[in-house]
Amino acid sequence: MDSPTDQAPADKVVTDTSPQVETPGGTPPGAKPAPPKTPLTAAAARPVAKPGAVVESTPDPPVNKMRRRIIWSAIAASLVAYFLMFLRFFLPRSILEPSSTFRIGSPGDYALGVDTKWQQQYRIWVTKTSDRLFVIYAVCTHLGCTPDWKASENKFKCPCHGSGYDSEGVNFEGPAPRPMDRAHVELDAEGQIQVDLARLYAWPKGEANKFDEKGAYIPL
Ligand code: FES
Predict the structure, then answer these.
(1) N or C: which end of the chain has fewer CB within 10 A?
(2) DSSP letter at 39?
(3) pLDDT tens by residue, 130-157
(4) All domains in the chain, ordered by first residue
(5) Which ligand 1 atom sits closest to the C-alpha of 147?
(6) What is the position in ligand 1's atom list of the atom closest to the CA of 140?
(7) How far apart, in whole angstroms, are the C-alpha atoms of residue 166 and residue 157?
(8) From its phi and psi, is residue 176 left (phi > 0), alpha (psi between -120 and 50) or beta?
(9) What is the pLDDT of residues 82-106, one digit of tens each?
(10) 137, 139, 141, 158: which to mutate for ligand 1, most atoms within 8 A of CB?
């Protein structure tokens, strides 16, 4: 008896069941297949302008315009700042310093005693007695602190180390070595008191008193 294999018909055609790969026409069998077609890139897809032809460019997105505007604004601001700093270098700084000379009203504006209304602005006190008006420079002669006027005690008291001065700025307690200085004063053409802090009258320890010199007070 014949086995099934022996019964295979002699005229059986063996067919290739593997998937058929289409090749372009004219491609010889066995040749390397061409790469699949891919979409053209943006650059490749861009139409090539013919010489002399007008090419329309795509409009710039608003966000790009905004970014460029911000960057250029920042650059312009930096340049302006540098330019102003450059100009400032050539300006004399003395112009910005407060003047040492100023007016504080007329003698009639002050009552007898100590007036502290100019302490914050000019660091001075105005003292008026029965026969003169003078200006005390509010700087402690120990180490330069600003004393406080104690009206109830009729004296200046330095908060730093306790020096005490009477109402005319003469030291009487604490480490202060001498009275506080007085500023130059004079009446101008309008009868106003002109003060000059660049010209001070001192009473150095063991030396002559300069408080009676001309310009150290205004006679009343
Ligand atoms: S600074 Fe005024 S007592 Fe020292």
Answers:
(1) N
(2) P
(3) 999 999 999 999 999 999 999 999 999 9
(4) 112-219 (2.102.10.10)
(5) 2
(6) 2
(7) 9
(8) beta
(9) 999 988 887 766 556 668 999 999 9
(10) 158
Position 113 pLDDT exceeds 90: yes
- Cα–Cα distance between 136 and 114 in angstroms, integer? 10
Give all strands (DSSP E) within the chain, no chain letters. 101-103, 113-115, 124-128, 132-137, 148-150, 155-157, 164-166, 171-173, 182-187, 193-201, 218-219
CA of 141 to the centre of ligand 1 (A): 7
| Residues near ligand 1 (Cβ within 6 A) | 140, 142-145, 158, 160-163, 174-176
Q: Element (H or E) spanning 75, and its range?
A: helix 62-90
Structure tokens at 202: 């001192």
Residues in the chain: 220
